[in-house]
Amino acid sequence: MQVPEEKKIALELLETEQAYVSRLHLLDQVFYTELMKEAKTGKTVPEEVVKMIFSNISSIYQFHSEFFLPELQKRMEDWNRNPRIGDVIQKLAPFLKMYGEYVKNFDKAVELITAWSEKSPPFQELIADIQKRKVCANLTLQHHMLEPVQRIPRYELLLKDYVRKLPAQSPDRGDAERALEMIFMVAKHSNAAIAEMERLQNLWVVYQRLGLEDDIVDPSNELIKEGPIQKVSTRNNSTSEKYLFLFNNMLLYCVPKVIQVGAEFQVHLRIDVEGMKVRELKDTEVPHTFLVSGKQRTLELQARSGEEMNAWIE
Fold first, then answer.
1. How many CB atoms lie within 10 A of CB 146?
2. CB atoms closer than 10 angstroms to residue 248
3. What residues does each domain of the chain span?
4. Angle between the 5-25 and 69-77 helix axes, to the nearest 10 degrees?
5. Segment among 8-12, 167-171, 268-272 with least mean pLDDT
6. Residues 161-218: pLDDT tens digits?
7. Residue 280: is its pLDDT beyond 90?
8. Distance (Å, rounded) from C-alpha 154 to C-alpha 148?
9. Residue 101's Cα: distance from chain center in Å?
10. Which CATH superfamily is domain 5-209 in?
11. Residue 229, strand partner residues
């Protein structure tokens, strides 16, 4: 007798979940536990660092091993009598928000592993030692750590497939569709969290280059464009090298610092975007120039090319 398509997918979900739980077990109960034990007894690495590397992996492991996997197993054993998984996945979805923290921390965790492997040979040895075990299947700690990052997109794909293959009158249809909607929201939420974190990190780097002037540091700002520009001086027909940072609310007109200690630029002028006008200057001897006039000041600027000028004006 042929296995219905939707059951095949439900079984694949169960099988991948079993494999996933053993991967989480390896991360939490083997890597994390042994590195932590070593950190407590030896001088290999501070406990804090181990905690930072593994973030909230313990909660994730417990949730999957003690709740989601057993529920899924029960469902599949009972499939012929009650062919449904949608309701179980609905219970799972809200807990997937836990992944936000793990995913956001992932890059930092990988950096810490690299940094401390260089700093502390015993730390590196212990990791290498665990990686040699059969359970690691010749893969690195970093590789195993990527698994939770990829798990939510995997649920989304499997569930999409499951919903597609469900017969129209299946008792699981309503639940499965709702579950898919919930998983989709969580996936979006975790992507949005990552994007927001990257935006803040990039913004912070820009603020450091500007010397952290307090009236400029504002987490809600958005950097739109930055780059070198020539300032045209009409008095003596010369140009000098400047640098612009355009945010959603202000244009910073900066001078590159010769001695790069701390900040890279000094902010000379700040022009509010509100009320600012920009136009190309066609009637000058100097090519690719444009005029920026704001409440605070008017600047005559020269770009390196027509494209660059248009990009700034845009």
1. 14
2. 10
3. 5-209, 223-313
4. 150
5. 268-272
6. 999 999 988 899 999 999 999 988 887 777 777 777 777 777 777 777 777 665 666 6
7. no
8. 10
9. 10
10. Dbl homology (DH) domain (1.20.900.10)
11. 242
Six-digit token string for 286: 């100097």
* Total count of residues recorded for the chain: 314
Q: What is the pLDDT of residues 103-141, one digit of tens each?
A: 888 888 988 999 999 999 999 999 999 999 998 888 899
Q: How many CB atoms lie within 10 A of CB 144?
A: 20
- Which residue type is seen at 68? F
H/E run at residue 82 = none
Strand partners of residue 301: 231, 290
Q: Residue 307 phi/psi, 5° resolution?
A: -60, -45
pLDDT of residue 115: 92
Domain 5-209 shares a fold with domain 223-313: no
- What's the rounded mean pLDDT across residues 284-294? 73
Q: Which residues pair with 293 in a beta bridge?
A: 277, 298
Tell me, letter by letter, the H, E, C secondary structure of 94-148.
HHHHHHHHHHHHHHHHHHHHHHHHHHCHHHHHHHHHHHCCHHHCCCCHHHHHHHH
Of the candidates 22, 70, 32, the one whose C-alpha atom is nearest the C-alpha of residue 54 is 32
Name the residue among 262, 261, 207, 269 with its Cα closest to residue 244: 269
Decide which of 2.60.40.10, 2.40.240.20, 2.30.29.30, 1.10.1040.10 is the CATH code for 223-313.
2.30.29.30
Burial (0-12, 13-18, 19+ Cβ within 10 Å), 82 = exposed
- pLDDT band for position 219 (cuts 50, 70, 90): low
Q: Give the position of tokens 């609310």.
A: 249
Cβ neighbourhood burial of 221 (10 Å; 0-12, 13-18, 19+): middle
